[in-house]
Design brief:
Elements: H1 4-17, H2 22-41, H3 52-64, H4 69-88, H5 115-124, H6 129-141, H7 145-149, E1 156-159, E2 164-169, E3 178-182, H8 184-196, H9 218-231, H10 240-252, H11 257-264, H12 269-273
Antiparallel strand pairs: 1-2, 2-3
Helix pairs in contact: 1-2, 2-4, 6-8, 6-10, 10-11
Length: 292
């Protein structure tokens, strides 16, 4: 019989072989650790003895502790992935998570910044060269914060002679690979950052780094931008608002939905189409991406 701690580590090792994003592996690992801690508190230490009632008890506990339905749904995703892994690898014969149902919740309206807001955000970070570069990349390319944190030196190409550049988002199980042009705002901000950043001879080194040459983590990026949101007096906004703003801006300007979907890395066109509820798009498609 397998003890809970052992299968937990095997699950994490499995996720690493599947090219999952580091943030995803960390989140799934913590979710399952939380689940298994609860199961052990019920007097069970063997994975084969876990039943659907144990999982339901855990979910009720989360609800009483104030977790949102969205957070609980994410933990259910982790749970289902975990027990599916156990079933496929024949660690268990029955999957207790199969009949667990996701709670229903409404998807919140995407926070789209006004021109006044994103200009104020940009101005508030003007003296912070690295954070300004991050803001411009997120705002001008629409990449996800996790994708930005994973960028390497080789993924950013700046042709100073021509004043042009491009950003390459690597393909992974979590991310659709794509090439994104860098407009003037992003190009200039990245050029300034490179003058301030320690020189690198290693193309595989992380592009955005700390003063100690360590990778800039997602939580570091989020904290920095949140600080400038606060400084600019922009309320109810998070780093993901920059991506929402990029998508909404280009739909409003008449860019093709197919083009925007491809550039945003959406796996389904329907994900992009949802933004039509929040912006009024022109009737003519210009097939052009304009600078914010």
């Amino acid at each position: 019989m397998l003890v809970l701690d052992k299968v937990h580590q095997q699950f994490i090792d499995h996720l690493k072989t599947k090219d999952r994003a580091p943030a995803t592996i960390m989140a799934y690992g913590k979710d399952i650790e939380q689940l298994l801690t609860h199961i052990k508190s019920l007097g069970n230490s063997k994975i084969e003895k876990v039943e659907k009632s144990h999982l339901e008890d855990f979910l009720k506990k989360l609800e009483t502790e104030g977790y949102t339905k969205k957070s609980i749904s994410r933990k259910i995703n982790s749970m289902k992935t975990f027990f599916r892994f156990l079933k496929v690898n024949e660690f268990i014969t029955d999957d207790p998570a199969t009949l667990i149902v996701h709670p229903k919740f409404e998807t919140p309206t995407p926070r789209i910044l006004t021109p006044t807001e994103y200009r104020a955000l940009r101005d508030s970070a003007r003296e912070d060269i690295r954070t300004l570069a991050i803001i411009e990349v997120l705002l001008q390319t629409g990449v996800r914060i996790g994708e930005l944190a994973e960028l390497r030196v080789k993924n950013i190409k700046l042709n100073e002679k021509e004043g042009k550049g491009n950003l390459s988002v690597p393909e992974s199980r979590a991310t659709l690979g794509r090439e994104l042009p860098l407009n003037n705002a992003a190009f200039s901000a990245l050029k300034s950052y490179l003058l301030d950043r320690p020189k690198s001879q290693n193309p595989d080194e992380f592009f955005f780094i700390t003063r100690n040459n360590k990778p800039l983590l997602v939580r570091n990026i989020r904290a920095s931008i949140d600080r400038y949101f606060k400084k600019a007096a922009i309320i109810n906004a998070s780093v993901h608002a920059l991506r929402h703003t990029w998508i909404a801006h280009h739909i409003k300007k008449g860019a093709s939905l197919v083009l925007v979907s491809k550039m945003a890395g959406h796996r389904r066109l329907s994900t992009t189409e949802k933004y039509l509820k929040y912006v009024e798009a022109p009737s003519k498609e210009k097939m052009k991406l304009e600078e914010l």
